[in-house]
Amino acid sequence: MDAFTSITSRTVVLPRSDIDTDQIIPARFLRTTSREGLGKQLFADWRYRADGSVNPDFVLNQPQAQGCQVLVAERNFGCGSSREHAPWALLDFGIRAVISTEFADIFRSNSLKNGLVPVIVDKETLAWLIANPGAEVTVDLTTRSLQLPNGEAVTFPIEPFARYCLMQGVDQLGYLLSKDAQISAFEQQRGAVSR
Question: Could you give the residue ranges of the DSSP H alpha helices within 19-146?
Fold first, then answer.
């Protein structure tokens, strides 16, 4: 997982509520345990027509969306099933943060464990972002803030441990493995005391 301290990016706006994980990555693409290539299937039923051709009307297929690393969506993003493939697909496509007023709990947890930052903002900030697609914003984990083009900074909540892991570029297992020497020393000391 790549370390995430801050990113500055234009936004791509998907002004829909209740975007579920089956819309993010349809179930037919869940046969893989690899993260690679899932970005091609991100929002597949919206990005492609029934004949497999690209839908030029879908926002992620439009030229102004190219290179955007921040997705803006309405409330309840990531609802539905608990598939970890949803944040994998977003990351593989190049999205590093999603901004909304509300995220499904399991999606938020899966995102944080995989390097995708869910940014929760108030309704007024979200309304401004939706009305201004392509706005350049900065998501900063150091200050836990979303910096808007007008200089305003909006703070967002993030669990301290998840924030630490994101900033270090490690997942939970990587964090535990980094403490192997301390764990071994504790176990040896505890074993010596209990004898």
Answer: 21-24, 44-47, 85-93, 105-114, 123-131
- Enter the pTM of the model: 0.89
Backbone angles phi, psi at 121, to 5 degrees: -125, 170
Q: How many CB atoms lie within 10 A of CB 165?
A: 21
In sequence order, what are the residues at sequence separation of 6 or more whose Cβ sits closer than 8 angstroms to the Cβ of residue 93? 38, 39, 42, 60
Q: Are 127 and 62 in contact (CB under 8 A)?
A: no
Angle at 129 (CA atoms; ends 127, 135), nearest 5 degrees: 160
pLDDT in tens, 44-68: 999 999 999 999 999 999 999 999 9
Q: Tell me if residue 140 falls in helix, strand or coil.
A: strand
> Residue 126 corresponds to which tokens in the numbers above?
């979200």
Give residue for tokens 């497999």. 52
Task: Give the separation between CA 32 and CA 85, rounded to whole angstroms.
Answer: 9
Q: CA–CA separation, 17 vs 55, rounded Å?
A: 21
Backbone angles phi, psi at 3, to 5 degrees: -65, 145
Ordered domains of the chain (ranges, CATH) = 6-194 (3.20.19.10)
